[in-house]
């Protein structure tokens, strides 16, 4: 049943042609088949082959032992009791006891082994998935909702876990039981068996029809889980806002809408299951009826003994057990297949920004950066930059000013190669950004931006983020330079103070200073300050400006600011409007020119102007 | 609160569904009992050669009817039980969400979003699974068990033999009592590990840009890998004990068989019971094995899910520390002044005071400017006004009502708070701006956007106001986000508006326009503006300068400039750049 599920996916929104390239862009994914899911699980599990073999041996031993116990009972009834062998009675008791101990032990070992293999597979899968996400571009995270990604890493992987840890073994044993009994039945009476097998095409057909629907329903379920998780993530992150707007009931309503959708989708699956399993059972009964009618007919024609029919029916019941089990498991398998598909969607998404083969590691930079006729737009929006050229001289401070939305931050993102421009080339020390390794590039660039993200952990850990092997003295020096040591040391635990999720317990300015310390510690050749000081009060800003002045000496620096006080010492100032440079020069030159810059300047410092 | 609340509540509401389902199960099973009987009659008839064509057809049809009946009732029972399980999931999730919205700031600074997400995703599911399939299986197994035991008692076996044989099975409750808590504990560890993993993942997806900037993906992978390793470790510990438990129950069954064989065999040989009864006894003991195994599984899964249930109940029993009084009043803020009297505040009892002896009187319709260093207590003061933290009694007054005696609804719906971070929801711009009144007419949305100076940027976007913002609105620049969030505050047109450093990422020209339009639009309403830049607050009727939690200066812009103090210093520093520049231009 490897690739019969294609049509199950046409319902997905925005299904187009082509393989799975850009997930989240609405392009259609090549469906990951159940077969490929098992192959992948097997490839991971194969590495654990000693455990795998041991587990299989245990399972076979368990089935053999289970066969032994009734034999012992039979032996007691047939031989011991008629022969009055009191002495042997205890021997038999001991035998059963031994068998029971062995059974328990083997069961324990096989479950533990399978669980450990399963956990290993999941561990690898989850890590692969996460690692892959980490390697994807920033634009991937622009396109996809955090909640959705979360649900893939947590929910979808957990669903696979259920299948691997509980259903795989069952599937394996059932398959063997089924084959063994089927062969035995063929040997007893091939006519009846073949007749019985006539119901199988119907079972397969039913399984296929329901399988398709189940998978597409599970797909809906898992998507609705992603929706729930996304809404939850979004509203919990914005909870302060929701509260200050008293929108709690509205959000609860919207949330319950989404969970209701999830419930409905789940109930749809339940319906399918509740219809499918009885149909398979029913087909089993039909098989039995066929055997009865045909067997009776043969018996009446004396072509078969009644004993054979009775035995045959007994075996038929045995044969149906694995089928019934399988019809239960198919549910789990289809659910896992849907989950697996969602996981593969991410894993098969290729980063658009990839190092080309043989990308060179950048040598220590001087820091000359040049944009030549670069055009860039975020996905399908209008162009942010159009045939844009800019040169940052090595070791100099260049400033970009302009109203918000004029493309300043985009320029910073392009230098760090978070995005590739659609047109034009960006070079650093003469190397095109596309020719160098991402690590060697980003290691030498430090960005302090307006979005401050601190991670759970201590203050020290957050500063060390830029350079993990730094010493305590270095951390403290960086904090001093960022004018952060004062407030850090005022905490009882100093650098070991824990900061909550996203550093809620620090004020905006304190967070910003930590993020500056982080960049200072990294000691990069190129520094980009993207509105790094906008949330600081004037005094701290002054301190930081001083610290930065120290730091910037001899490095290439790009300062993005709308507050002109922060950029007056820049060696070169560019004024950006709608993605175009309208003016450039030093502060004095620009003031003298009486253009856009001086207009901005006057607005910002009217008093001084009046005083002059 | 009692530990078993959510489940008990749910059962109280939907016990009849479970009852019906179990009843249907019973019917289905009783129908199934006829199956071997009919089959037996059929073979008997066949053996004596009494079968006719009609009889064959009759028997097959009868068997089919039994089959259909069994299957139908069984399917229905299963559907009901799973359906009700999903209802449970829905109710609990909705309840949790509602509970979350009621919790206070303090709760959120303790619990990360990822951790809370994990409750929804992992714990609710775990409980649901054990109550839906668990109940069915348990019901099924119990029926088989009861049937087997009844039959055992009905045939002519001495009770002491039965008791001796069944005795090992009576040890099951002992094992449950002993191993149950261990399973639960380890299961709790698994759930906690899952929570940590969710938290790490959530944080990482939010902070991916920083990770990329610092090129530390390997470190992040390692960090995440550790949490996954923890899950694996705890899962394996759990599997070990639970598979031990599951192996133990059939083992006890086997012991029962040993006793039956040895003791029963002895009695048979010494002719105290018949061979037939001995055979029947061993058969029935074997019949017990399967349901016992099933019950073992159910107990196992119940123990696991109890850990989750406890986590959920514990979460739900946490009370918000901001509670409305029972007789809380709604106050009309449009002509009520805001009065702060001798307010001192610290976040924790032991920690330093963040605010000290604040006295403030804001007349209705006036504008207050607040300036001060980072960490001087500005935002804390606003949090107390909005009562996201409780101020001490008698310190914050709206009109003549203490803020603690007001309804939260009337307080918060009349204050428009615009935070600094410009948080936007991942939905359309229009929905973000019209967050307060979702069905606000377009013209008002546009007007608010104009006042916040974001209108021109929005109409440049491909879908204008219907443009969907990406995750956390990242396709807008920092300044655009702030202005969108400002428009959201403006459209509320509330009697009181608080701008908490809400224009910091906006350039000087735009800031000036924004301040002007706020002055015009809100001329008769109370406005509080917090800023670092004097340019944003100098028009205020009163300006206070906060330093280290104390009001060090107050007055109008001109008055404060005339005083020697922090305000004048700040002003000088902000001007210094330009003076410095002027200086260099002359040199």
UniProtKB/TrEMBL annotation, chain A:
CDD domains in alphabetical order: ABC_6TM_exporters
Name the membrane topology term: Multi-pass membrane protein
User: Which GO molecular-function terms appear in the entry?
Assistant: ABC-type oligopeptide transporter activity; ATP binding; ATP hydrolysis activity
The record's subcellular location field reads:
Cell membrane
Q: Where is the ABC transporter domain?
A: 369-603
Its keywords, alphabetically, are: ATP-binding, Cell membrane, Membrane, Nucleotide-binding, Transmembrane, Transmembrane helix, Transport
Cited PANTHER family = ATP-BINDING CASSETTE SUB-FAMILY B MEMBER 10, MITOCHONDRIAL (PTHR43394:SF1), ATP-DEPENDENT PERMEASE MDL1, MITOCHONDRIAL (PTHR43394)
Q: Indicate the family of this protein.
A: Belongs to the ABC transporter superfamily.
- What's the name of the protein? Subfamily B ATP-binding cassette protein MsbA
Q: What is the lineage of its organism?
A: Bacteria, Bacillati, Bacillota, Bacilli, Bacillales
From TrEMBL, chain B:
InterPro entries hit by this protein: AAA+_ATPase (IPR003593), ABC1_TM_dom (IPR011527), ABC1_TM_sf (IPR036640), ABC_transporter-like_ATP-bd (IPR003439), P-loop_NTPase (IPR027417), Type_1_exporter (IPR039421)
Q: Which top-rank group of organisms is this from?
A: Bacteria
The record ties this protein, via PANTHER family, to: ATP-BINDING CASSETTE SUB-FAMILY B MEMBER 10, MITOCHONDRIAL, ATP-DEPENDENT PERMEASE MDL1, MITOCHONDRIAL
Where does the record place the ABC transporter domain? 338-573
Give TM regions. 15-35, 61-84, 138-155, 161-179, 244-267
| Molecular function as annotated in GO | ABC-type oligopeptide transporter activity; ATP binding; ATP hydrolysis activity
Q: Where in the cell is it found?
A: Cell membrane
Naming one, the record's GO cellular component terms include: plasma membrane
Q: Which UniProt keywords apply?
A: ATP-binding, Cell membrane, Membrane, Nucleotide-binding, Transmembrane, Transmembrane helix, Transport
User: How does this chain sit within the bilayer?
Assistant: Multi-pass membrane protein
* Major place of residence: membrane
- Report domain ABC transmembrane type-1 positions: 19-304
- Descriptive protein name: ATP-binding cassette subfamily B protein
